[in-house]
Amino acid sequence: MKTPKKLSYCFSIISLVLSTGASTSAQTAEKKSLTLDGAVRVIAAAKAYAAQLKAPGGVIAVVDAGGNLMALERLDGTFAAGANISIGKARTAVLFQKPTKVFEEIINKGRTAMAALPDSFFTPLQGGIPVVLDGQIIGAVGVSGASSAAQDEEIAIAGADAAKNFGADPPVTSNLLPVSYFSKTELDEGFSKGAVLFDGSGGRNYMVHTSRREGPGMVEVHTKDTDILYVLKGWATVVTGGTMVDGKPIAADEIRGREITGGESRKLVPGDAMIIPNGVPHWFKEVQAPFLYYVVKVR
Protein backbone atom coordinates (compact mmCIF):
# COMPACT_ATOMS: atom_id res chain seq x y z
CA MET A 1 0.00 0.00 0.00
CA LYS A 2 1.37 3.37 -0.97
CA THR A 3 1.75 5.91 1.83
CA PRO A 4 0.06 9.30 1.13
CA LYS A 5 2.50 12.16 0.59
CA LYS A 6 1.20 14.24 3.56
CA LEU A 7 1.51 11.29 5.96
CA SER A 8 4.97 10.50 4.64
CA TYR A 9 5.96 14.11 5.25
CA CYS A 10 4.72 13.92 8.87
CA PHE A 11 6.75 10.76 9.44
CA SER A 12 9.81 12.56 8.13
CA ILE A 13 9.28 15.50 10.53
CA ILE A 14 8.79 13.15 13.53
CA SER A 15 11.91 11.18 12.57
CA LEU A 16 13.92 14.42 12.35
CA VAL A 17 12.72 15.57 15.79
CA LEU A 18 13.48 12.20 17.38
CA SER A 19 16.90 11.97 15.80
CA THR A 20 17.70 15.54 16.87
CA GLY A 21 16.61 14.78 20.45
CA ALA A 22 18.74 11.64 20.56
CA SER A 23 21.71 13.53 19.20
CA THR A 24 21.27 16.32 21.77
CA SER A 25 20.91 13.78 24.60
CA ALA A 26 24.12 12.10 23.52
CA GLN A 27 26.00 15.40 23.68
CA THR A 28 24.78 16.52 27.11
CA ALA A 29 24.68 15.02 30.61
CA GLU A 30 22.82 15.75 33.80
CA LYS A 31 24.96 18.00 35.98
CA LYS A 32 24.59 17.84 39.76
CA SER A 33 25.35 20.89 41.87
CA LEU A 34 26.02 21.64 45.51
CA THR A 35 23.24 23.58 47.24
CA LEU A 36 23.63 25.89 50.22
CA ASP A 37 21.91 23.27 52.40
CA GLY A 38 24.46 20.73 51.20
CA ALA A 39 27.33 23.08 52.02
CA VAL A 40 25.92 23.62 55.51
CA ARG A 41 25.68 19.85 56.03
CA VAL A 42 29.30 19.43 54.95
CA ILE A 43 30.41 22.01 57.52
CA ALA A 44 28.23 20.46 60.24
CA ALA A 45 29.76 17.02 59.65
CA ALA A 46 33.28 18.47 59.66
CA LYS A 47 32.59 20.40 62.90
CA ALA A 48 31.20 17.31 64.59
CA TYR A 49 34.27 15.29 63.67
CA ALA A 50 36.57 18.11 64.84
CA ALA A 51 34.78 17.97 68.20
CA GLN A 52 35.43 14.22 68.43
CA LEU A 53 39.13 14.85 67.79
CA LYS A 54 39.11 17.73 70.29
CA ALA A 55 40.72 19.89 67.61
CA PRO A 56 42.03 23.16 69.10
CA GLY A 57 40.53 25.27 66.31
CA GLY A 58 40.12 25.44 62.58
CA VAL A 59 38.34 27.09 59.68
CA ILE A 60 36.08 25.02 57.42
CA ALA A 61 35.36 26.35 53.93
CA VAL A 62 33.09 24.86 51.26
CA VAL A 63 33.16 25.88 47.57
CA ASP A 64 31.01 24.86 44.61
CA ALA A 65 32.20 23.11 41.44
CA GLY A 66 33.53 26.42 40.09
CA GLY A 67 35.58 27.20 43.18
CA ASN A 68 33.17 29.86 44.47
CA LEU A 69 32.83 30.14 48.25
CA MET A 70 29.44 28.88 49.51
CA ALA A 71 29.90 28.60 53.28
CA LEU A 72 32.61 29.13 55.88
CA GLU A 73 32.83 28.63 59.64
CA ARG A 74 35.66 29.69 61.90
CA LEU A 75 36.03 27.69 65.12
CA ASP A 76 37.20 29.38 68.30
CA GLY A 77 40.95 29.64 68.75
CA THR A 78 41.86 29.74 65.04
CA PHE A 79 44.55 32.06 63.71
CA ALA A 80 43.39 34.98 61.55
CA ALA A 81 44.79 33.73 58.21
CA GLY A 82 43.02 30.39 58.54
CA ALA A 83 39.99 31.49 56.50
CA ASN A 84 41.98 32.41 53.39
CA ILE A 85 44.04 29.22 53.60
CA SER A 86 40.95 27.03 53.96
CA ILE A 87 39.26 28.68 50.98
CA GLY A 88 42.44 28.20 48.96
CA LYS A 89 42.61 24.51 49.84
CA ALA A 90 38.98 23.93 48.89
CA ARG A 91 39.36 25.85 45.62
CA THR A 92 42.51 23.90 44.70
CA ALA A 93 40.83 20.57 45.43
CA VAL A 94 37.83 21.30 43.21
CA LEU A 95 39.62 23.03 40.31
CA PHE A 96 42.26 20.30 40.04
CA GLN A 97 39.81 17.55 41.15
CA LYS A 98 42.27 16.00 43.58
CA PRO A 99 42.99 16.19 47.33
CA THR A 100 45.50 18.95 47.99
CA LYS A 101 47.81 16.50 49.74
CA VAL A 102 48.73 15.24 46.24
CA PHE A 103 50.21 18.61 45.27
CA GLU A 104 52.01 19.10 48.58
CA GLU A 105 53.71 15.74 48.12
CA ILE A 106 54.66 16.54 44.50
CA ILE A 107 56.32 19.79 45.58
CA ASN A 108 58.07 18.10 48.52
CA LYS A 109 59.53 15.58 46.08
CA GLY A 110 61.25 18.36 44.15
CA ARG A 111 58.80 19.67 41.58
CA THR A 112 58.92 23.15 43.07
CA ALA A 113 57.82 24.86 39.85
CA MET A 114 54.23 24.08 40.84
CA ALA A 115 54.59 26.43 43.79
CA ALA A 116 54.89 29.31 41.32
CA LEU A 117 51.22 29.00 40.33
CA PRO A 118 49.08 31.98 41.46
CA ASP A 119 47.91 31.80 45.08
CA SER A 120 44.45 32.91 43.99
CA PHE A 121 43.57 29.42 42.82
CA PHE A 122 46.40 27.14 43.97
CA THR A 123 47.10 26.31 47.62
CA PRO A 124 49.15 23.09 47.69
CA LEU A 125 48.67 22.36 51.39
CA GLN A 126 47.11 19.23 52.87
CA GLY A 127 43.50 19.70 53.98
CA GLY A 128 41.47 20.15 50.78
CA ILE A 129 39.11 17.36 49.67
CA PRO A 130 36.68 17.22 46.70
CA VAL A 131 33.00 16.65 47.53
CA VAL A 132 31.67 13.84 45.32
CA LEU A 133 28.04 12.88 44.70
CA ASP A 134 27.13 9.95 42.44
CA GLY A 135 30.56 10.03 40.84
CA GLN A 136 30.51 13.78 40.12
CA ILE A 137 32.67 16.39 41.85
CA ILE A 138 30.14 19.00 43.00
CA GLY A 139 32.42 21.09 45.21
CA ALA A 140 35.16 20.79 47.80
CA VAL A 141 35.88 21.39 51.48
CA GLY A 142 39.05 22.92 52.88
CA VAL A 143 40.18 22.90 56.51
CA SER A 144 43.01 24.82 58.15
CA GLY A 145 44.06 25.49 61.73
CA ALA A 146 43.62 22.11 63.44
CA SER A 147 46.48 20.58 65.41
CA SER A 148 48.25 19.27 62.29
CA ALA A 149 47.97 19.07 58.50
CA ALA A 150 46.92 15.43 58.82
CA GLN A 151 44.11 16.45 61.19
CA ASP A 152 43.05 19.18 58.74
CA GLU A 153 42.62 16.47 56.12
CA GLU A 154 40.78 14.09 58.47
CA ILE A 155 38.24 16.80 59.27
CA ALA A 156 37.87 17.72 55.59
CA ILE A 157 37.27 14.07 54.66
CA ALA A 158 34.56 13.80 57.33
CA GLY A 159 32.87 16.85 55.82
CA ALA A 160 33.13 15.57 52.25
CA ASP A 161 31.72 12.19 53.31
CA ALA A 162 28.49 13.95 54.30
CA ALA A 163 27.63 14.05 50.58
CA LYS A 164 27.02 10.30 50.73
CA ASN A 165 23.94 11.02 52.83
CA PHE A 166 22.50 14.01 50.97
CA GLY A 167 18.74 13.63 50.97
CA ALA A 168 18.82 11.24 53.91
CA ASP A 169 16.32 11.61 56.73
CA PRO A 170 17.25 12.33 59.50
CA PRO A 171 20.06 14.79 58.61
CA VAL A 172 23.54 13.39 58.28
CA THR A 173 24.79 15.10 61.43
CA SER A 174 22.34 13.31 63.72
CA ASN A 175 24.74 10.52 64.71
CA LEU A 176 28.11 12.25 64.43
CA LEU A 177 28.35 13.83 67.89
CA PRO A 178 30.06 11.73 70.56
CA VAL A 179 28.13 10.42 73.57
CA SER A 180 29.10 12.05 76.87
CA TYR A 181 29.36 9.86 79.96
CA PHE A 182 29.96 10.95 83.56
CA SER A 183 30.60 8.53 86.40
CA LYS A 184 29.07 8.78 89.87
CA THR A 185 32.47 9.87 91.15
CA GLU A 186 32.54 12.78 88.72
CA LEU A 187 29.00 13.78 89.67
CA ASP A 188 29.72 13.61 93.40
CA GLU A 189 32.81 15.75 92.88
CA GLY A 190 30.83 18.27 90.85
CA PHE A 191 28.08 18.58 93.46
CA SER A 192 30.65 18.90 96.27
CA LYS A 193 31.44 22.42 95.12
CA GLY A 194 29.10 23.15 92.22
CA ALA A 195 30.56 22.85 88.75
CA VAL A 196 29.97 22.87 85.01
CA LEU A 197 29.52 19.22 84.07
CA PHE A 198 29.31 19.75 80.31
CA ASP A 199 30.33 23.03 78.65
CA GLY A 200 28.49 22.77 75.32
CA SER A 201 31.61 21.89 73.31
CA GLY A 202 31.23 20.73 69.73
CA GLY A 203 28.86 23.56 68.87
CA ARG A 204 25.97 22.12 70.89
CA ASN A 205 23.37 24.54 72.21
CA TYR A 206 23.22 23.26 75.77
CA MET A 207 25.29 23.04 78.95
CA VAL A 208 24.83 20.91 82.08
CA HIS A 209 25.71 22.12 85.57
CA THR A 210 25.96 20.18 88.83
CA SER A 211 24.77 23.06 91.00
CA ARG A 212 25.11 23.55 94.74
CA ARG A 213 23.72 26.36 96.89
CA GLU A 214 24.53 27.00 100.52
CA GLY A 215 22.30 30.04 100.91
CA PRO A 216 20.12 32.59 99.11
CA GLY A 217 21.47 34.28 96.00
CA MET A 218 20.95 37.34 93.83
CA VAL A 219 18.16 37.67 91.30
CA GLU A 220 19.30 36.29 87.93
CA VAL A 221 18.26 36.91 84.34
CA HIS A 222 19.84 34.95 81.50
CA THR A 223 18.95 36.80 78.31
CA LYS A 224 19.76 33.84 76.02
CA ASP A 225 19.79 30.69 78.18
CA THR A 226 16.72 28.74 79.30
CA ASP A 227 17.31 26.90 82.60
CA ILE A 228 15.88 23.42 83.19
CA LEU A 229 16.22 22.47 86.88
CA TYR A 230 15.91 19.11 88.62
CA VAL A 231 16.27 18.98 92.42
CA LEU A 232 18.23 16.21 94.14
CA LYS A 233 18.69 17.31 97.75
CA GLY A 234 17.56 20.06 100.13
CA TRP A 235 14.88 22.61 99.36
CA ALA A 236 14.65 26.19 98.13
CA THR A 237 12.05 28.89 97.75
CA VAL A 238 12.32 30.23 94.22
CA VAL A 239 10.65 33.43 93.05
CA THR A 240 10.12 33.81 89.30
CA GLY A 241 8.78 36.54 87.06
CA GLY A 242 7.84 39.94 88.43
CA THR A 243 10.22 42.87 88.29
CA MET A 244 13.93 42.80 89.12
CA VAL A 245 15.13 45.53 91.47
CA ASP A 246 18.54 47.21 90.87
CA GLY A 247 19.39 44.95 87.93
CA LYS A 248 22.89 45.36 86.48
CA PRO A 249 24.75 43.46 83.72
CA ILE A 250 27.63 41.41 85.13
CA ALA A 251 28.70 39.64 81.92
CA ALA A 252 27.51 39.09 78.38
CA ASP A 253 23.81 38.09 78.42
CA GLU A 254 23.78 37.96 82.26
CA ILE A 255 22.01 40.40 84.60
CA ARG A 256 21.90 40.35 88.42
CA GLY A 257 19.64 42.22 90.81
CA ARG A 258 18.85 42.66 94.53
CA GLU A 259 15.29 41.31 94.72
CA ILE A 260 12.06 40.67 92.81
CA THR A 261 8.78 42.49 93.29
CA GLY A 262 5.51 40.95 92.18
CA GLY A 263 6.90 37.53 91.31
CA GLU A 264 5.50 34.01 91.90
CA SER A 265 6.96 31.98 94.78
CA ARG A 266 7.40 28.18 94.81
CA LYS A 267 9.12 25.74 97.15
CA LEU A 268 11.28 23.21 95.31
CA VAL A 269 12.03 19.87 96.97
CA PRO A 270 13.85 16.70 95.77
CA GLY A 271 12.18 15.27 92.66
CA ASP A 272 10.76 18.66 91.56
CA ALA A 273 11.66 20.19 88.21
CA MET A 274 11.30 23.69 86.81
CA ILE A 275 11.82 25.32 83.41
CA ILE A 276 12.77 29.00 83.48
CA PRO A 277 12.70 30.54 79.98
CA ASN A 278 15.41 32.96 78.96
CA GLY A 279 14.69 36.54 80.00
CA VAL A 280 12.63 35.56 83.08
CA PRO A 281 13.93 36.89 86.44
CA HIS A 282 14.42 34.18 89.08
CA TRP A 283 15.63 34.31 92.66
CA PHE A 284 16.62 31.61 95.12
CA LYS A 285 15.21 33.55 98.05
CA GLU A 286 15.47 30.84 100.74
CA VAL A 287 17.73 27.78 100.73
CA GLN A 288 18.14 24.77 103.01
CA ALA A 289 21.78 23.83 102.54
CA PRO A 290 23.09 21.95 100.79
CA PHE A 291 20.66 22.47 97.94
CA LEU A 292 21.81 20.22 95.08
CA TYR A 293 20.25 20.33 91.62
CA TYR A 294 21.01 19.73 87.96
CA VAL A 295 20.70 22.65 85.56
CA VAL A 296 20.53 22.13 81.79
CA LYS A 297 21.10 25.44 80.05
CA VAL A 298 19.66 25.55 76.52
CA ARG A 299 20.46 28.41 74.16
Salient structural properties:
single chain; 299 residues; alpha+beta; Beta-Lactamase; Jelly Rolls; 2 domains; four-stranded antiparallel beta sheet; 29% helix; 33% strand; elongated
Architecture overview:
The structure is a single chain. The chain is α+β, with helices and mostly antiparallel strands and 299 residues long. The protein is built from six helices and 15 strands. A hairpin with a 7-residue loop joins strand 5 (195-198) and strand 6. It starts with a helix and ends with a strand. The model is unreliable at 6-25 and 169-175 (pLDDT under 50).
Which regions have little confidence, pLDDT < 50, spanning 5+ residues?
A: 6-25, 169-175
Radius of gyration: 30 Å
Which bin fits the share of residues in helices? 25-40%
Our measurement of the CA-to-CA distance between the termini, rounded to an integer number of angstroms, reads 82 Å
Q: Quickly give the structural class.
A: alpha+beta
CATH topology of the largest domain: Beta-Lactamase
Strand content: 25-35%
Order of helices and strands: HHEEHHEEHHEEEEEEEEEEE
State the shape. elongated
CATH superfamily of the largest domain: Haem-degrading domain
Second rung of CATH, namely the architecture of the largest domain: 2-Layer Sandwich
